[in-house]
Amino acid sequence: MSFYRTILAAVAAAAIASPVFADDSAMQSSSATQSPSAAAAPAQGSSMSQPSASTESNAATTETKVNINKASAKDLMKVKGINASKARAIVAYRKKHGDFKSLDDLAKVKGFTKMKAEDMKAIEDQLTIE
To answer: Which CATH class name applies to 65-130?
Structure first.
């Protein structure tokens, strides 16, 4: 029984100490605090300009591309289709092999080697090399 307690304690300590889990909870709490105000805005305001302004800001954030050669793992996780382990693998590959010459080099990174072509294309559309 103590073996399982030890494993459970180790997993709990890793979850608490990991910045990836901390960032996820912070993002969830910030989105939770924003959604009630966003829901309250249409009920309070008589003009429809407020929701369209937020839609424009969301469109602007999705159009910005992440530079794969300069982004941190945290920045790479903002790309749809890249989770924490893939983001860390990209950073590790970049440290070991140097900057990416093209987006096709992404296929050499662990986690991307067996990815479908259409999924790779969707990710590459959100990335850039400068």
So the answer is: mainly alpha
- Write the pLDDT tens digit of every residue in 28-69: 444 444 444 444 444 444 444 444 444 444 444 456 889 999
The residue to which tokens 């989770």 are assigned: 83
d(CA 111, CA 89): 8
Backbone angles phi and psi of 128, in degrees to 5: -145, 160
The answer to whether residues 65 and 123 touch, using CB atoms and an 8 Å cutoff, is no
Dump pLDDT digits (tens) for 85-105.
Answer: 999 999 999 999 999 999 889
pTM, whole model, 2 decimals? 0.52
Query: What is the residue extent of each domain of the chain?
Result: 1-43, 65-130
C-beta contacts of 20-26 below 8 A and 24+ residues apart: 20/77, 20/84, 23/74, 23/77
Amino acid of residue 7: I
Place of tokens 């999924």: 119
